[in-house]
Specification:
Blueprint: H1 3-13, E1 15-21, H2 36-49, E2 58-65, H3 70-81, E3 102-109, E4 113-114, H4 123-144, E5 156-160, H5 175-178, E6 189-193, E7 200-204, E8 213-217, H6 224-227, H7 233-242
Length: about 240
């Protein structure tokens, strides 16, 4: 294998695939799953927000057909066996998916661990997380009047900027030692805001002389967004906030 191909494999090895079942026009899967309009809006937002610090780095989108290959099915089975929530049915379930099922695969950089799973140990970490998210949202709002609309702890990811990837703060670090007047950045944590499936932003149409804008957003008339009931205290609060 050539060095260029090997480098590409290594690069893709650090990425994330978001696999989305697309809604069928009729038959199995025609009353659930993501619509074409919804996935198009999300891809437009991914491309729009890609260059803004604090947002997911978008690579590509693919549309494929059929059933999961063994490696993807094994990953789903492993995720389910770990006791984690799976919003969609088992991909191997023929009653839930037809043999002609369409899937959108979104490729993104690995943004790290979800904030809800992160065990913080220092006020510097909390400080950096808060201001990292706040500055990212401020940039996106100024750039495209962006609204996330679903910014819970599972949609904020963290990763370390340190070479060793360690996310815990060094024991002997303080603001004075680093000469940081604000203290920002001491934890070396990098925040990334993800999942724009309910988001809204303005896309400037550069080929329009009148300076028209297109709004990319999800249809909030879907009653299912507001009828869901939370399973724990945090999710109950989240669902009540939607309502």
């Amino acid at each position: 294998m050539s060095k260029s191909r090997l480098a590409k494999l290594r690069e893709y090895g650090e990425g994330v695939f978001k696999v989305v079942p697309l809604r069928a026009q009729k038959g199995v899967g025609s009353k659930k799953f993501t619509t074409i309009d919804e996935i198009v809006a999300e891809v437009k937002l991914l491309k729009l927000l890609d260059p803004i610090p604090g947002f997911a780095r978008f690579r590509e989108v693919h549309v494929v057909q059929g059933r999961f290959p063994p490696s993807f099915q094994a990953a789903w089975d492993s995720y389910k066996a770990a006791g984690k929530d799976c919003e969609n049915p088992n991909p191997a379930n023929k009653r839930a998916y037809s043999d002609q099922q369409l899937w959108a695969i979104l490729e993104m950089d690995d943004a790290g661990v979800e904030l809800e799973k992160f065990k913080w140990s220092s006020v510097f970490q909390v400080y950096d997380i808060f201001w990292g998210v706040a500055m990212g949202l401020a940039r996106a709002e100024e750039y495209a009047l962006f609204e996330h609309r679903d910014l819970h702890l599972g949609n904020i990811c963290l990763r370390s900027k340190r070479p060793d990837g360690d996310m815990q703060l060094l024991a002997d670090v303080d603001a004075n030692q680093l000469g940081a007047s604000s203290g920002f950045g001491i934890s070396s944590l990098e925040t990334t805001i993800i999942d724009y499936s309910l988001s809204r932003a303005e896309l400037r149409l550069t080929d329009e002389s009148e300076g028209k804008v297109e709004v990319a957003s999800t249809d909030l008339d879907n009653k299912g967004l507001f009828d869901a009931v939370g399973r724990d205290e945090a999710e109950i609060l989240q669902r009540n906030t939607y309502r």
